[in-house]
Amino acid sequence: MELHITGLSKTYANGVHALDDVTLTIPTGMFGLLGPNGAGKSTLMRTLATLQDADHGSVQLAGTPEGNVNVLRDKDAVRRLLGYLPQDFGVYPKVSAEDMLDHLARLKGLTDKAERAAVVAALLRQTNLFDVRRSALGGFSGGMRQRFGIAQALLGNPKLIIVDEPTAGLDPEERTRFHNLLVEIGEEVIVLLSTHIVSDVSDLCPSLAIMNKGRVLVTGTPQQLVASLGGRVWATSVGRGDVAAMRERHAVISTRLYTGKTQIHVISDGPPGLGFVPVEATLEDAYFAAIGGHLARDHREVAAGHILSHDAR
Ligand code: ADP
User: What is the pLDDT of residue 308?
Assistant: First the structure.
């Protein structure tokens, strides 16, 4: 299977260009859509989940059991193939996990009671909620609620699974648990994971796209994006008052407080000056470099990753 998104654009009534000519090819497996708040991730996810319309562009889901599906037009087929965990996943607080999942399974067309009970039990086990299946959803922790969200998304054996910012607000332990659950979903389906947390992607996704302001800035594997920075990331540590001056002189990609000083990462082809040391680039560096526009400007034709230059469009 492959999801082909071509020239997708969306402008809201208030004039915000939430999607600006988005073109992406998403293979089977887990794919990360990484970008800051407001990048357009949810708009893209909701459009793929048939919940809202784009202004321009086309989307095809190729090689499904139902053949090639025109995602923007054939919404019923998409819904049969789709599992979706929205960003604002709400639950009925007084209903138990088991009853809610049973209800949703019936809506998905599982009419046979015994078959439904078996599916519901299996999903509750898979998401580690079997022991609390009789508890009301309102008492669930954030992590339990998100795992329940995955259980409902997996109803009906979806081939395209979309999870929108699923780890926001989870503590580290719950996040790891949630990551493990996503990994187990399998390699035969497309799992599209939107997030602003770099480690969600670096831990889970063999390929990713970085988005900002409605545009796809770069796509590739985490290794390709890191390699595209090769040897050009430098670090130094300065007092907090000196950060502004550093920004004026250097292409600063990130700043971070560390034991009272500010650690600065800059991107530069050669040594940027006294006090800088070369550091091994991380996906976080690549992310901040892309968001800051440094990746596209400095390396227009990186062979490894597919860096998209705005000037070239
Ligand atoms: P992300 O999921 O990456 O945070 P969104 O798709 O939610 O991004 O938002 C992209 C941009 O579109 C933001 O500037 C946001 O404020 C705007 N936006 C999102 N939904 C609407 C809407 N229904 N009406 C107007 N603007 C919207």
Answer: 52
Cα-to-centroid distance, 148 and ligand 1 (Å):
26
* pTM for the whole structure: 0.91
End of a domain among 222, 248, 268? Answer: 222
Distance CA 236, CA 274 (A): 9
Question: How is the chain split among helix, strand and coil, in percent rounded to 5?
Answer: 35, 30, 35
- Give the Cα separation of 44 and 31 in Å (integer): 14
Neighbour count for residue 243 (Cβ, 10 Å) = 13
Which ligand 1 atom is the nearest neighbour of the CA of 165?
Answer: 2
Q: What is the CA 70 to chain-centroid distance, rounded?
A: 22
- What CA–CA distances, in Å, run from 248 to 210, 292, 294? 25, 14, 14
Check whether residue 217 and residue 268 sit in a common domain. Answer: no
CA of 174 to the centre of ligand 1 (A): 27
Asked if pLDDT for residue 123 goes beyond 70, the answer is: yes
Distances (CA, A) of 231 to 40, 187, 234, 287, 313: 31, 33, 8, 16, 28
With a 6 A CB cut-off, is 282 part of the ligand 1 pocket?
no
Mean pLDDT of 191-220: 96
Q: Is residue 111 part of a domain?
A: no
